[in-house]
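Internal tracking record. Fields below are filled automatically when a chain is submitted to the structure queue. Please do not edit lines marked as system-generated. If the sequence contains nonstandard residues, flag them in the REMARKS field before resubmitting.
Queue: standard
Priority: normal
Entity type: single polypeptide chain
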Amino acid sequence: MKHIAIGLMVAMVLAACGDGETADSLDLPTDGSNTSTTTSATTSTTTLAPETPTTSAPFEVIFTGADGVESTITDTSRIISLNGDITEIIAALGLADQLVAVDVTTTFPPETGALPRVGFGQQLAPEGVLAFEPTLVIGDTQIAPSESIEQLRSAGIPVVIIDVHTTLEGVETKIQQIAEVLGASEQGVQLSAQVRAEIAAAQELIPPEAEAPRAIYLYVRGPQQIFVFGGGMVTNALIAGAGAVDAAAETGVFGAVPLTPEALVAAQPDVILAPTAGVEALGGVEALADLPGVSETPAGAAGNFLVYEDGFFLNFGPRTGQALNQLVSDLYSEE
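SYSTEM-GENERATED OUTPUT FOLLOWS
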């Protein structure tokens, strides 16, 4: 791969790392260098379950969350989602009309755009949630502070906490858990099977004889906020799932750590991945290429940058197979 490939996706936003910014498409650099420019335009759609579940009374689900708390759910008519990926799953199960509010990390699917926001789930203010009189609140283990969660529970509202899943297999588990909570287990099985099939289809596109490229994901939010994502992150699962080597994880990076030129040079990536919103905030792909250390990597020398809309790439949910398909296509594309 000797090109700059820009994945232009329908607006979504980061959930796994808790950022609520949205992004549009990027302007590609035209510096006259010998790097060819390829624009990869993809329209992403929510994967929908074949049938809309019914949750009519009597309805009761008892679910033990990742925090060990047992919740009894008897009414899903007024749901608040505290994570963008959870919102996507709820909508894909056919229950978007039961959402009354979401947190700022939700910008997909489009039908959730008009919903009120309750702020940022990792800085949860219970008053903003209580104002919508929810019958169910769903979030993951990143939701904080715990005192806010307890205040909601003390008010009689079931608050279900789901694990943060960072493996491709975990996507299915998350879908099925949320479906169970919503009384839509059958639809959850169907949706997770569909996503599994999309993941498998994407991996079938990996050329069997191709040398595994070394890839690194830079989480950029502007010149002063640049992190390297390594092991234990959803990007690690996507890179490995695409048949590539996670250059950061291979050099011992786990989680998200601040970027240093030395770490980038040591990783020697063939391709650098980054989020659309962050690259725009940085000043475009040219600014990304000018970061200290980038020019000393094979990716920087060849101009190999893959830029994807944040939530499309980082939300592990109904679109994960589509994101993996796009990554595989871009990693192994011809000049």
